[in-house]
Known about the structure:
Elements: E1 5-10, H1 17-30, E2 35-39, E3 42-43, H2 50-59, H3 65-68, E4 76-77, H4 83-89, H5 96-109, E5 112-116, H6 131-138, E6 142-147, H7 152-165, E7 170-176, H8 184-201, E8 206-210
Amino acid sequence: xxxxxxxxxxxxxxxxxxxxxxxxxxxxxxxxxxxxxxxxxxxxxxxxxxxxxxxxxxxxxxxxxxxxxxxxxxxxxxxxxxxxxxxxxxxxxxxxxxxxxxxxxxxxxxxxxxxxxxxxxxxxxxxxxxxxxxxxxxxxxxxxxxxxxxxxxxxxxxxxxxxxxxxxxxxxxxxxxxxxxxxxxxxxxxxxxxxxxxxxxxxxxxxxxxxxx
Length: 213
């Protein structure tokens, strides 16, 4: 597989990861980088990934042939919970070979693949495998989504320690302004704090702000 698959995760389930993924795909395509998104495990849906639908809405493309064929949503489970439990409820294991085959095919066709995870960085995929360990095993560069809500600094710092300990390549920290936070003082200070931290300790990591569309 080409080194063009970027795993997108975040500090928690409600950080706006899908919104950020769609926005980044839109931006990269506008910059001439042919980019597609993939939701490697979708929970809480039947037949169609709602996150892929959101990506395409933001990208302005409508559903793509790769969506219709299932390449961008290889594993879908019905119950809205973490993948390990959703798979148990549906009485079938996650087919990681199917996921990786689909990712490889997208990687060969496009310049970049934004592979969106399910939930936060430490969410279990199975009883023995965390999302962060899957990322480390595959050696995917990580796009990490955070926000300006109260508590984001704490969650970001804990995540960065875990990322560093596992030797994961931190490609980008995406600071998501959607949804809008009520406390602008906290939001602005959180952004400044994370910017300063990255400049000091992760100077090669990109920092991008995801605006509200």
